[in-house]
């Protein structure tokens, strides 16, 4: 993803953060500190709510990385190359190669939501312990919020609409049943388009009802729709190219032009180490040949740019060769 920075590795895979990732933490922290924590654990200072809200948002961010890390880990286990994991404003995304079997596709997709469910269970368990045993109401509220958020994350990702994880599972099931991977991908992506449109609609209704958080749903739905459209296009293209070879796209008898005589050098002769001189025609220098086209200017001070040194010399072409000689075979070292 453009605009992201590498920040270490997870499960041996590069972990990247998009510039928009801090937005996710800010939005989560504002929602948690401004409403949830004062309601679930009253009678604490604003400073305490803010500090624990940031901690809770970071905790949820970490569990999001665990979700993506699970996808990456299982993909690597089944031999699929994983490029990276990127966290951005709407969550996380793992870039990897395609699964070769329906089973691998399903297992990789299911690993993320299952990890979120485990994180959710651990969070809720820890919340009960800190509340009943240690009596840390604020800490318990943060852990409970993170636990429920993870369960909600798992539930949302299990919606059968690609590219959500549930959509990938649906794709794997159809692929296994029908034996047609691209058809399965297209059906799952169509479901993704429908789910994205529904999310946009729900977000707009929520926004016009007065909840600013509705915009988040609109953004999420739009992102889901765009990814689903791209998936439909990819599977359609892949299916249309099925069974074709490179030779099918080539002209069987291309037109060739035979040169009337032997290959001759047509390079301009220049004196060695000629000074650059003023360039008055937009960085192009007139060709020394009478009536010739302007030649591209080169930087004489930069040896790497092919400065105006001695013109290349060519050795004569052999008269009895098996065919037309290559220019590279005629080049001689300068001197
Ligand atoms: Zn996932």
From TrEMBL:
<dbReference type="InterPro" id="IPR008915">
    <property type="entry name" value="Peptidase_M50"/>
</dbReference>
<feature type="transmembrane region" description="Helical">
    <location>
        <begin position="135"/>
        <end position="159"/>
    </location>
</feature>
<protein>
    <submittedName>
        <fullName>Zn-dependent protease (Includes SpoIVFB)</fullName>
    </submittedName>
</protein>
<keyword id="KW-0378">Hydrolase</keyword>
<dbReference type="GO" id="GO:0006508">
    <property type="term" value="P:proteolysis"/>
</dbReference>
<keyword id="KW-0645">Protease</keyword>
<dbReference type="GO" id="GO:0046872">
    <property type="term" value="F:metal ion binding"/>
</dbReference>
<feature type="transmembrane region" description="Helical">
    <location>
        <begin position="21"/>
        <end position="41"/>
    </location>
</feature>
<feature type="transmembrane region" description="Helical">
    <location>
        <begin position="47"/>
        <end position="67"/>
    </location>
</feature>
<feature type="region of interest" description="Disordered">
    <location>
        <begin position="246"/>
        <end position="335"/>
    </location>
</feature>
<keyword id="KW-1133">Transmembrane helix</keyword>
<feature type="domain" description="Peptidase M50">
    <location>
        <begin position="56"/>
        <end position="127"/>
    </location>
</feature>
<feature type="compositionally biased region" description="Pro residues">
    <location>
        <begin position="313"/>
        <end position="325"/>
    </location>
</feature>
<dbReference type="Pfam" id="PF02163">
    <property type="entry name" value="Peptidase_M50"/>
</dbReference>
<dbReference type="GO" id="GO:0008237">
    <property type="term" value="F:metallopeptidase activity"/>
</dbReference>
<keyword id="KW-0812">Transmembrane</keyword>
<feature type="domain" description="Peptidase M50">
    <location>
        <begin position="131"/>
        <end position="194"/>
    </location>
</feature>
<keyword id="KW-0479">Metal-binding</keyword>
<keyword id="KW-0482">Metalloprotease</keyword>
<keyword id="KW-0862">Zinc</keyword>
<comment type="similarity">
    <text>Belongs to the peptidase M50B family.</text>
</comment>
<feature type="transmembrane region" description="Helical">
    <location>
        <begin position="106"/>
        <end position="129"/>
    </location>
</feature>
<dbReference type="GO" id="GO:0016020">
    <property type="term" value="C:membrane"/>
</dbReference>
<keyword id="KW-0472">Membrane</keyword>
């Amino acid at each position: 993803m453009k605009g992201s920075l590498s920040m270490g590795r997870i499960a041996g895979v590069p972990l990247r953060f998009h510039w928009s990732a801090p937005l996710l933490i800010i939005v989560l922290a504002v929602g948690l500190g401004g409403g949830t924590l004062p309601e679930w654990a009253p009678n604490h200072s604003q400073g305490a709510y803010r500090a624990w809200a940031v901690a809770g948002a970071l905790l949820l961010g970490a569990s999001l990385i665990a979700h993506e890390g699970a996808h990456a880990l299982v993909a690597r286990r089944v031999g699929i190359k994983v490029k990276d994991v990127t966290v951005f404003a709407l969550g996380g995304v793992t870039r990897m190669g395609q699964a070769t079997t329906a089973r691998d596709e399903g297992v990789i997709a299911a690993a993320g939501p299952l990890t979120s469910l485990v994180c959710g269970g651990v969070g809720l368990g820890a919340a009960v312990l800190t509340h009943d045993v240690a009596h840390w109401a604020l800490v318990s509220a943060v852990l409970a919020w993170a636990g429920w958020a993870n369960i909600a994350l798992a539930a949302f990702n299990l919606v059968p609409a690609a590219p959500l994880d549930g959509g990938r599972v649906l794709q794997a099931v159809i692929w296994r049943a029908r034996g047609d991977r691209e058809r399965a991908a297209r059906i799952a992506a169509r479901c993704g388009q429908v789910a994205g449109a529904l999310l946009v609609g729900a977000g707009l209704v929520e926004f016009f009802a007065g909840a600013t958080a509705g915009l988040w749903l609109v953004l999420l739905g739009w992102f889901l729709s765009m990814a689903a459209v791209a998936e439909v296009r990819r599977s359609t293209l892949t299916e249309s190219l099925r069974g074709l070879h490179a030779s099918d796209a080539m002209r069987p008898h291309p037109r060739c032009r035979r040169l009337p005589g032997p290959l001759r050098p047509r390079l301009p002769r220049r004196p060695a180490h000629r000074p650059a001189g003023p360039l008055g025609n937009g960085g192009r220098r007139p060709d020394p040949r009478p009536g010739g086209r302007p030649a591209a200017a080169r930087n004489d001070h930069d040896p790497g740019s092919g400065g105006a040194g001695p013109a290349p010399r060519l050795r004569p072409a052999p008269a009895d060769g098996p065919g037309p000689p290559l220019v590279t075979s005629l080049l001689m070292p300068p001197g």
